[in-house]
Design goal:
Layout: E1 14-19, H1 22-30, E2 39-43, E3 55-58, H2 60-66, H3 81-92, E4 100-101, E5 106-109, H4 113-127, E6 136-138, E7 143-147, H5 152-155, H6 163-182, E8 186-191, H7 194-203, E9 212-215, H8 220-224, H9 238-246, H10 252-256, H11 260-267, H12 269-278, E10 296-307, H13 309-329, E11 334-343, E12 351-361, H14 364-378, E13 385-393, H15 409-429, H16 446-449, E14 452-453, E15 456-457
Length: 473
Amino acid sequence: MSNFDYAKEKVQDIFMIDVKSFYASCECVARGLDPLTTRLVVLSHAENTSRGGLVLAASPAAKKDFGVTNVMRGRDLPISKSFYKALSIAEAKKKPLPIYDEALKFYRVPPRMRYYVKENMKINDIFKEFTAPMDMHPYSIDETILDVSASLNYFYPENELSRYQKRDLLAREIQLKVYRKLGFYVTIGIGDNVILAKLAMDNEAKHNRTMRAQWTYADVEAKVWAIKPLTDFWSIGSRMSKRFEAMGILSIRDLANYDFHKLHQKFGIVGLEYYHHANGIDRTVVSHKYQPKVNSLSNNQILPKDYDDKEFLLILQEQAAQTISRVRKRGAKAASIHLYVGYARGQGERGFSRQLKIAPTNSTAVVIKATERLFKKFYNGHSKIRHIGISFGHLTYTDELQLDLFSDPLEQIKGERLDQAVDEIRLKYGFTSIFKAASLKDFGTSLSRANSVGGHAGGTDGMEMGKPSKHAD
């Protein structure tokens, strides 16, 4: 029995659209290959992780035929003897690695993040033909929410068609346009609100031949409550699932019928959100954009090798300088620094995480000294290091320069002008237009990361255009 009167809930026409295996599909389309039938994985560069990189995306055929999953390690991928030999020869001669395993008809390609971003923009341009930009919300690089409530009858004004028939026809039209223009397959969940559209996409549309599914308020008990396990429900991870199970909540039906007062008491406002979502209630309006006030900025990096403390100091300086430049770009100053240092495997310790309060500043020199002080105080003196994270918090938005009574004011002003000049040069000519000579050392990472997007390669490595489609199944 329903816990809400759905007749009182606003019915919207929401599409949750997902580009099937987006990164892998981009690579297939670029090579003239079918994204659904080609065996292909996008594999991060080996130097960024241990032994062979991570799978960032896998095509449906690679998942089906080889059991590939995202974040699987490259070392666990199937490989033929001939391809292994070709890889070994290329590595020894320091030549570009081959990408196609002829024996297995299997592609392993490096990421090209800038290309994926451009393709995502093309896809979203198509979506704008079906709804106003204000009614569109890019949820991630491969998922977009569309509210077509205002445009549905424009495309299908026929009175003999029901609202739900019009939704399905419009969703199909979007699928066809994206495929015909760009070559991508898209999955579309259709719902009376955002949560129902999301659940329809994740739990039904992805498994349908049409790649479409529609969930309404009338489907909540039969479809939403039937989702199992708990982790198949949007935003419920393994940790939250265990907390629910400890409370006797073993299914979405249990969650939807649990005492919401107890959920509120246990989890706060998030508990009420889970309760409403389990009952198919989501009053989000796509056009009402939420603009969070950023009160911290951070930068994290898994290092390409194990670093000793002397080598690590350069990484620390580079990352502190890069992150504080983002603070300056926002017109802000930071009043706290948080440093995380993760030790390499087999060191016996995990590392440390410490915070330091400082006078509000956006000076590169000041924050480098502060982060070095944190590191030297808490580093154990012997462990190898593999992970760094720096965060500047308690941001204040002001143009005033707060002088330090213990420092020469002229030197402080000179330092601020130097930072501004460096920022302006990089803004105009790029990050690598000006940098410290120390970054040229073999263990420096700022220059190699300058051209990355989201921590992964942004260029054209691994592209063998020619006529690769002859290798397709």
